[in-house]
Records
---
Amino acid sequence: MEGALAKDAESRLWAWADAAERQALERIFIQLVRPGEQLDAGERGPDTRRVAARTEFSEGDWALIHRLASTRLVVVTRRPTGRDTAELAHQALVEKWPQLQRWVEENREFRGWQEGLRRSLQAWQEQGRPKALALGREQVTEARRWIDARAGEVPVEEAEFVATSAQVQQLAPVGAACSSRAPPCSPSSLSSRCPWPPATLATAVSSGPWPRAGA
């Protein structure tokens, strides 16, 4: 049954989408999967479906998600708070759909970094946005690399957190910044000690019609 579901997903999707829409499908679907975290002994946890907030998508991609709901591959939920969400209809799509598995694998490094950034952002917000939980210098540098490469997939809220962190690190003594970092966004880090100017980060995502949190 799961294999049939995955095969049906393939035929539904490609029959439904035109050439331009197909280019957007990859960036939409990888946001609906949480990549498995690295475990001990080189193993990795399973990939799982995730609930993605409306604010994680541009206006155009969110409109496409609403149309995707007609394929029954994606479920859109309207919430009283206004923070609407989208998710895959079945975990079996993550486990059995080859096309989705290829997309996830090809984007695993980026999505792993982004999930780490979101955890850091959530902790910072829940604790009242203290400077001590801003990203460290190396984390800001890594964020610069990803936003340079994939600005259209980093929502405003996330980019603004990086910009704020960059400003915090610019104003803090190097020693203090090193001793008060938030948990790393990913296992990798860069050697550069120069943060990305906040204005540059904000500009990097300004071209996309990203909704604000709660929109």
---
Amino acid sequence: MDYVMRAVRADEWPQVRQLRLDALKDPAAPVAFLESYEEAVAKPDAFWQERAAAAAAAAAEDGGGRVRQFVAESPEGVWVGSVTVLVESPEDDVRFGEAAAVDQAHLVGVFVRPEVRGTGVTDALFREAVAWAWSLSSPRLERVRLYVHEKNPRAAAFYRRFGFVPSGQRIPAPGGRGELELEYVLGREG
């Protein structure tokens, strides 16, 4: 695999925007993301600039760097996938699901272009994201979590293969259709 896994840079907001829009066109988008293509495309450039800047912030001992977006980049410079890591602490406001019981990372915005699925790109992105989460010392994270829609078995199968296990936590999926989001967790070893 010739792809490079790396954190986004603040000046790459146009690529951050385009990859998100491409992800929202994917057939699995209605059960994988919490916004629609129409909502995302309507957001101003300033939103994408702020998002990229936050995702590119260096981790700092003073609590900075609470979000990091990783991308998979082809040798030609094409972004083929992404995952974002949010650092959550018990004192934080609830972003999605339940409040954090421990210091943890929350993986969101997972997307890999269909043409590179099954090539190891998703594994490499997850290794990069989880390694970054475990590298933080303040706070020292106890686990990594993510949510998967009950009607997204392809994603759930990947998460289990990677080592995530269902926690038993279930929350209502956005949209009020009675569907569920299932929490999967990966505990820190050692």
